[in-house]
Amino acid sequence: MRFQVPQFINVEDKIFGPLTIKQFIYLAGGAGTAYMLFKFLPIYISIFLVVPVIGLALALAFYKVNNKPFIGVVESAFKFSRGAKLFIWKKEPRKINVKEKEPTEGSESLLYVPKLSDSKLKDLTWSLDIKENVNPGTRETMGKK
Fold first, then answer.
1. For residue 5, what is the DSSP state?
2. What is the per-residue pLDDT across 2-49, written as a single tens digit (0 to 9) for each?
3. Using CA of residue 66, residue 71, residue 73, residue 79, what is the dihedral sign?
4. Most buried in the list 54, 65, 97, 131, measured by CB within 10 Å?
5. 88: DSSP letter
């Protein structure tokens, strides 16, 4: 048993001559709005309002931006203008200038005192250096008796 598979499912049906139902509604709505503006307003005011209405109706019916209908662009613009915006920037790390004091002639420090920001490896080497000064026979430090 053979079935016929639809080939053009993305193409809208032409209902009113060469126009689809959406195109017909956009053009009929634009023409109706233009007629109402022309009928109820003075001619010098209605001209300035009818031209944008007709232009919008034609754009909605026929204009495409990047192969997308113009109504999608209008919808995206409206959502963008009304929605919340999230601004993201690339955060650059701060450069920290560390100035170490040079030892002066009068103050000689024999022991290295680790800072809190140094690595654990330096702390370990410091503690091993302290225990090297212990006298192995008496278990006392060399300076004490």
1. P
2. 888 878 777 777 787 888 899 999 999 999 999 999 999 999 999 999
3. negative
4. 54
5. -
CB-based contacts of 69: which residues, under 8 Å, 6+ apart? 60
Rg (CA), the chain: 41
Amino acid 91 reads K
Q: How many CB atoms lie within 10 A of CB 140?
A: 10
Q: How many CB atoms lie within 10 A of CB 23?
A: 20
Distance between CA atoms of residues 58 and 33, nearest Å: 13
The helix (run of H) or strand (run of E) holding residue 9 is none
Both tokens of 34, joined, read 């233009």
Could you state, in order of their start, the residue ranges of all structural domains in the chain?
Answer: 14-62
Q: Residue 130 CA to chain centroid, in angstroms?
A: 54
Over residues 66-102, the pLDDT tens digits come to 989 999 999 999 999 998 888 777 777 778 777 766 6
**pLDDT given for residue 56 in this prediction:** 95
- The neighbouring-strand residues paired with 141 are 134
CA quadruple 36, 39, 45, 50: dihedral positive or negative? positive
Amino acid residing at 21: I
